[in-house]
Design goal:
Blueprint (H helix, E strand, L loop, with lengths): L2 H7 L17 H22 L4 H9 L18 H14 L1 H21 L3 H13 L3 E4 L17 E3 L2 E11 L7 E7 L9 E7 L3 E7 L12 E10 L8 H42 L8 H28 L3 H5 L1 H29 L1 H4 L8 H7 L8 H14 L9
Parallel strand pairs: 1-4
Antiparallel strand pairs: 2-3, 3-7, 4-5, 6-7
Helix pairs in contact: 2-3, 2-4, 4-5, 4-7, 5-6, 5-7, 7-8, 7-10, 7-12, 8-10, 10-12, 10-13
Bound molecules: flavin-adenine dinucleotide.
Length: 408
């Protein structure tokens, strides 16, 4: 089924969002078509550290950039489970494409969940759906690393006009994006933790390059540094304070989408290890090669990784509109630990796959090379550093007791 047919089969545009049941049947096919484009250019994207243009063009063609936007604003109303499945599929094809898609969808989730009811943000939602705009993220600032809950740059107010100048150390695909969702200090006299979220579009900001992106992996995300200068309207500030958006949407959706992309990278490495072990066993008359145990270990950690993502996904999906549940210590600890554990498990899985393949996995050429997967997945523990997350959770962990039973 092509996109047009899929959209035709969806309930009429006159249907209310309550009545709308998205036609999920078209999602796998549309995602597979993007994954094919992504896989075809993955090696070149990595080698040249270039933006995966063909893959993102395919995502636009398949209208996947606006797939999460509710039907009433022109999208498909895809759920968090649909989106994470897409991240996983793309991760198997090209890590950078998957991460770009994951970051874009996290920004779209903020727009959908916290922009509905605000005229400016609703207009942007329609634009994302109809024009297939690509949204980037700006949270990292100056020397502040992954401390997202503290901003230095403040929004300057002049009546209804606002402006912002931000030393944005890392903005993935900043040069290619059509818009950016950024955090900032509420005003000049506000504390660093008193933050707002803004959605800004190409015509109201400029980016002056400040830092290149020459990295070990995730090279196609083109996560360069920029001086961001914005001038626009106060309407562009999300109505809710950032601390709420951070807890309810930004962190959960980012961690679920990132983890799914990393699981996809891990799955691709496991697939190569499986092909290697099969070939080696065939060549030895059915005798398993010595690396087979590492292949089993890779499958085991991939299973754990997928189980951890899906269990957090189910909890989030069950409570996604329940502010109290999402703000609870238990949920916040769990969703933060998901990022830590998923990133470590993804690295462990790719490492096991590499050891299963031996030299064939270590080589940069050949069908069993997992070098690119390893370099890409090594970004996972440092993308908001696991040490920082573990240290931040320590106080909250002290406050909750040790479970009395297995299902407590
Ligand atoms: C592929 C990729 C894409 C990215 N894309 C974007 C993007 O689009 N937009 C954006 O804004 N940012 C982006 N980032 C940046 C990311 O959000 C983090 O800001 C960044 O990874 C933090 O890196 P850091 O190690 O310099 O900083 P830090 O988090 O400050 O860590 C530096 C060091 O300090 C240690 N450390 C820090 N805090 C603690 C603590 N409390 N306890 C113990 N040790 C601690 C860490 O272990 C680490 O060794 C991206 C990062 C990656 C890897």
């Amino acid at each position: 089924m092509n996109v047009q047919e899929a959209r035709f089969r969806s309930p009429s545009a006159a249907a209310t969002s309550e009545q709308f049941i998205p036609d999920r049947s078209s999602f796998p096919q549309r995602t597979a078509s993007v994954a094919t484009a992504a896989a075809a250019e993955a090696e070149e994207v990595d080698r040249d550290a270039r933006f995966p243009k063909a893959a993102i063009d395919a995502a636009r063609q398949q209208r996947l950039l606006g797939v999460q936007i509710p039907l009433e604003f022109g999208g498909d109303g895809a759920s968090i489970s649909d989106i994470t499945d897409m991240c996983y599929t793309l991760g198997r094809a090209c890590a950078s494409t998957a991460m770009i898609f994951a970051m874009h969808q996290t920004k779209v989730a903020c727009l959908v969940r916290h922009g509905t009811g605000s005229k400016w943000h609703e207009t942007l939602m329609r634009r994302v759906a109809t024009e297939q705009l690509l949204l980037a993220s700006s949270t990292t600032e100056g020397q502040n690393g992954g401390n997202i809950r503290f901003s230095t740059a403040a929004v300057e107010h002049a009546g209804r006009e606002i402006s912002l100048v931000r030393n944005a150390t890392v903005i993935s695909y900043g040069a290619q994006a059509d818009g950016i969702v950024t955090i900032a200090r509420r005003a000049n006299d506000a504390a660093g933790s008193d933050q707002v979220l803004l959605a800004i579009t190409r015509d109201d900001y400029t980016l002056e390059p400040s830092l290149e992106w020459e990295t070990l992996g995730m090279r196609g995300t083109c996560s360069a540094g920029f001086e961001l200068k914005f001038k626009g309207s106060a309407e562009q500030i999300f109505p809710e304070a950032y601390d709420k958006i951070h807890a309810q949407t930004m962190t959960p959706v980012a961690h679920l989408c990132w983890s799914s992309a990393w699981a996809g990278i891990a799955a691709a490495a496991v697939e190569r290890a499986q092909l290697f072990i099969r070939k080696a066993a065939r060549g030895a008359g059915g005798q398993m090669p010595p690396g087979a145990a590492h292949y089993t270990a890779a499958k085991m950690t991939l299973t754990k990784l997928r189980a951890m993502i899906t269990s957090n996904l189910d909890i989030y999906a069950a409570h996604e509109h329940d502010e109290r549940a999402l703000s609870s210590l238990d949920f916040q600890s769990s969703i933060n630990l998901l990022k830590v554990e998923a990133s470590e498990l993804a690295v462990a899985t790719v490492m096991s796959a590499m050891r299963a393949c031996g030299l064939s996995g270590y080589r940069n050429d050949g069908d069993f090379s997992v070098g690119r997967h390893l370099r890409d997945v090594l970004s996972a523990p440092i993308m908001i550093n696991n040490d920082r997350i573990l240290a931040n959770i320590a106080t909250a962990s002290l406050m909750s007791g040790v479970p009395a039973s297995l299902r407590d």
